[in-house]
């Protein structure tokens, strides 16, 4: 192996001074005709011609896991190897019958320095760095890292994690998909986003590698024609893509579906939605003040992600009602405003509670506007229990809300109730939501007769349709 | 020194130059694009009559919906048929 100094023929020993077994075997090296590589101290062992392998090139080339390692090479190929000190094996490989007579028969070795956590990043980049195609940007030594990344326009205003090559490689380990595979074409600039680019943005957002399959599925869903992320971004309305996680992956990676599911404090919830938004910002070029023309926006535009509490819910999961096979993991991406709480601590009958929820849902966008804006209802455990105990399943609940939200024209007309906003001359009752425009997910903590409505944006072909995608797991 | 990977599309947008402004609209074709927001036509109707008084030929276009980008075919049609285009954003 040219350049590394490994002989094509003969014995090779790799060791390090920091290993007691290596120090134990040092005396036998005098009588071995071996090429000796030292991983940490070129002066060790003393009195022997040692090749400096502090850069670990020979150790990597030889695939050393344990020190000391003794191996034999013939014609440029390895023909035998032993790890640690095993007197019989060393004698056999070296062909020296009384080798190490004064040493114990056996002593295990130590981990090779190539496995030292202190050089793990370097080793990772050395092994897999060639898979990374993204442009490398050098931050100057005097630049504050957080400031430098903000100054380059790569953040949503909050600090980001620097996407160094080792971090991105570790992120990529979260998926079996190839780094150069195109995940989606990202609006508004219609830029193809590779798995690597999504991984870089997932690092920025603070994701763990096991979240990457969810982020990839969310990017695919958000970049679909039906979701219309360009329109959602460009509108003066303040909604943004939100990510609802379904199936067993939610529990496995820790997406919160319980207390404070819509709030802060859970890493998966806080970073998965953020990663999607950073992909749209950085890859797609969608930035506030540019294509993003929101009049007000809302705090969830940093990123919103939660899971349905499928284990705690008495109902069929929302994902199953949307065609996902039971037990499969998926994401639904939908246009979302901030969540608004709904209080009802008194109702114990499904009819009464449904009326409360309908009343709150009517307020989405405007109480007198119908058929335009979608919404998601997040039903808390105490509220869904009222329906379940009365024998209402998801279908009956949905139908009941639909009936309650069929609104009389005289209440909707422009000028009605002293409000100029409204529908122009409606002549028949109108449904508040278009068919499929209201989704209900069960989530939240065990205490509290509070649910939440998450308003959306214009639903359907003229706006954004919620999109569900299966998660391709690593 | 820290090395990071670029999270963006890595495009350095070439600087775009604005097309030359015509000295006069007389005899030119002006496209009026309605993005289909309510009352956009009120503004464009008035513009059309003013442009007519200046001797311009007016052609009217509309996006199918304001919520989505203009279809590429419509963009090509306007570029082929007009010298100047005015886009109306209204509510």
Q: Shape of chain B, please? A: elongated
| Terminal Cα span of chain B | 51 Å
Number-wise, the strands of chain A total 22
Let me know the number of strands of chain B. 4
* Biggest contact: A-B, 38 and 15 residues
Helical/strand content category of chain B: alpha/beta
Side-by-side strand order of the widest sheet of chain B: 3-2-4
Mean pLDDT of chain A: 96
Q: What sequence of helices (H) and strands (E) makes up the elements of chain B?
A: EEHEHE
Strand content of chain A: 15-25%
| Tally of helical segments of chain B | 2
Measured between the Cα atoms of the first and last residue of chain A, the distance is: 35 Å
Strand order of the largest sheet of chain A: 3-2-1-5-6
Helix content of chain B: 25-40%
Low-confidence stretches of chain B: none
Low confidence ranges of chain A: none
What structural class do the secondary elements of chain A suggest? alpha+beta
Mean pLDDT of chain B: 85
How much is the radius of gyration of chain B in Å?
18 Å
What does this structure look like?
The complex is a heterodimer of chains A (474) and B (91). By secondary structure, chain A is of the alpha+beta class. In chain A, 28% of the residues lie in helices and 21% in strands. A five-stranded mixed β-sheet of chain A has the order 3-2-1-5-6, with helices on one face. The longest helix of chain A is centred in the middle third of the chain and has 16 residues, at 267-282. The two termini of chain A are 35 Å apart. Chain B has 91 residues and is an alpha/beta fold. Chain B has a three-stranded parallel β-sheet with strand order 3-2-4, with helices on both faces. Classes of the chains: A alpha+beta (474), B alpha/beta (91). The A-B interface holds A 132, 134-141, 145, 149, 154, 162-165, 168, 188-189, 191, 196-197, 200-201, 204, 228, 230-231, 234-235, 278, 282-285, 458, 462-463 and B 1-11, 65, 67-69.
């Amino acid at each position: 192996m040219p350049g590394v100094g490994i002989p094509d023929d003969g014995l090779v020993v790799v060791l390090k001074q920091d290993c007691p077994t290596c120090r134990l075997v040092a005396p036998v090296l005098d009588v071995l005709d071996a090429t000796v590589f030292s991983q940490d101290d070129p002066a060790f062992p003393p009195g022997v011609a040692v090749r400096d392998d502090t850069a670990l090139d020979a150790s990597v080339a030889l695939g050393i896991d344990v020190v000391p390692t003794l191996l034999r090479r013939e014609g440029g190929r390895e023909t035998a190897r032993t790890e640690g000190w095993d007197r019989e094996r060393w004698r056999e490989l070296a062909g020296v019958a009384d080798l190490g007579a004064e040493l114990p028969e056996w002593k295990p070795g130590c981990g090779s320095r190539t496995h030292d956590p202190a050089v793990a990043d370097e080793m990772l980049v050395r092994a897999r760095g060639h898979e990374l195609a993204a442009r490398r940007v050098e931050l100057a030594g005097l630049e504050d890292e957080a400031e430098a990344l903000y100054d380059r326009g790569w953040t949503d205003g909050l600090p980001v994690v620097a996407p160094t090559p080792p971090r991105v490689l570790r992120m990529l380990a979260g998926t079996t998909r190839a780094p150069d595979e195109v995940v989606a074409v990202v609006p508004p600039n219609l830029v193809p986003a590779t798995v690597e680019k999504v991984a870089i943005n997932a690092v920025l957002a603070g994701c763990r590698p096991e979240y990457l399959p969810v982020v990839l599925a969310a990017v695919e869903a958000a970049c679909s024609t039906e979701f219309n992320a360009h329109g959602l971004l460009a509108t003066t309305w303040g909604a943004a893509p939100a990510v609802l996680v379904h199936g067993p992956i939610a529990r496995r990676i820790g997406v919160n579906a319980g207390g404070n599911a819509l709030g802060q404090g859970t890493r998966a919830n806080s970073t998965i939605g953020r990663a999607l938004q950073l992909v749209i910002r950085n890859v797609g070029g969608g930035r506030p003040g540019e294509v993003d023309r929101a009049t007000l926006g809302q705090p969830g535009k940093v990123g919103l992600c939660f899971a349905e509490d499928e284990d705690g819910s008495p109902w069929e999961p929302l994902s199953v009602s949307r065609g996902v096979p039971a037990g499969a993991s998926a994401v639904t991406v939908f246009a979302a405003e901030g969540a608004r709480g709904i209080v009802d601590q008194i109702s114990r009958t499904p009819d009464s509670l449904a009326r409360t929820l309908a009343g709150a849902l009517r307020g989405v966008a405007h109480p007198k506007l119908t058929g335009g804006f979608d919404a998601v209802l997040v039903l808390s455990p105490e509220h869904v229990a009222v329906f379940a105990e009365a024998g209402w399943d998801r279908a009956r609940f949905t139908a009941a809300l639909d009936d309650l939200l069929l609104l009389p024209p005289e209440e909707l007309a422009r000028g009605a109730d002293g409000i100029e906003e409204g529908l122009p001359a409606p002549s028949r009752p109108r449904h508040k939501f278009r068919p499929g425009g209201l989704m209900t997910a069960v989530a939240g903590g065990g205490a509290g007769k509070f649910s939440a409505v998450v308003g959306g944006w214009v639903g359907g072909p003229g706006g954004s349709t919620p999109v569900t995608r299966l998660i391709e797991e690593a | 020194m820290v090395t990071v990977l670029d999270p963006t599309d890595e495009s350095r947008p070439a600087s775009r130059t604005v097309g030359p402004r015509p000295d006069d609209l007389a005899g030119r074709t002006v496209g009026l694009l309605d993005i289909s927001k309510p009352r956009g036509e009120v503004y464009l109707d008035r513009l059309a009559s003013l442009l007519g008084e200046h001797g311009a030929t007016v052609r009217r276009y509309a996006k199918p919906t304001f919520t989505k980008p203009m279809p590429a075919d419509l963009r090509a049609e306007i570029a082929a048929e007009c010298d100047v285009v005015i886009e109306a954003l209204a509510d």
